[in-house]
Amino acid sequence: MAGGFEFTPDPKQDRRGLFVSPLQDEAFVGAVGHRFPVAQMNHIVSARGVLRGLHFTTTPPGQCKYVYCARGRALDVIVDIRVGSPTFGKWDAVEMDTEHFRAVYFPRGTAHAFLALEDDTLMSYLVSTPYVAEYEQAIDPFDPALGLPWPADLEVVLSDRDTVAVDLETARRRGMLPDYADCLGEEPASTGR
């Protein structure tokens, strides 16, 4: 996926418990090329079967996300919806849990969804811009053209907004999707490292 990255930190355990650092500046900058500009931190608790997404933020301003599962287990999905991107319409999925401690970086212009695979799953987000309701948009997470890998054995719970979200092609025709060049222009400046 162009611009999306998965990070797996090295946890430290001893008789007291566990220490893990899901976001490490040096590793992030080395992979992405710039620091992550944190404007807000979000915690979302979901019951098993809750599916949130596919969500994205209008660009500009757009929004980068760094997502981590702090409790439970979730299937996290990124979809490239940037018109003109070499990976437009492609997706990747990562199972996130407190065993492997994976985190995922979502660049501007990508859509994000996660499905809670256990009750009381806590997803923690660092985001690059504050939440503004008018900029938040959604694409149907069950769009057959995307073919996302949702498990068939779960009864899925969606928000009202996600239930009526349009498919990717309809969003493209309506001009809802971000332009790849605009998304690249909105990325934070490189640190030069």
TrEMBL record:
Residues under site feature: Participates in a stacking interaction with the thymidine ring of dTDP-4-oxo-6-deoxyglucose: 131
Pfam families: dTDP_sugar_isom
GO biological process terms, semicolon-separated: dTDP-rhamnose biosynthetic process; polysaccharide biosynthetic process
GO molecular function terms attached to this record: dTDP-4-dehydrorhamnose 3,5-epimerase activity
A GO cellular component annotation in the UniProt record: cytosol
Active site per the UniProt annotation: 55 (proton acceptor), 125 (proton donor)
Stated family: Belongs to the dTDP-4-dehydrorhamnose 3,5-epimerase family.
Protein name (Swiss-Prot/TrEMBL): EryBVII
Native organism: Saccharopolyspora erythraea (Streptomyces erythraeus)
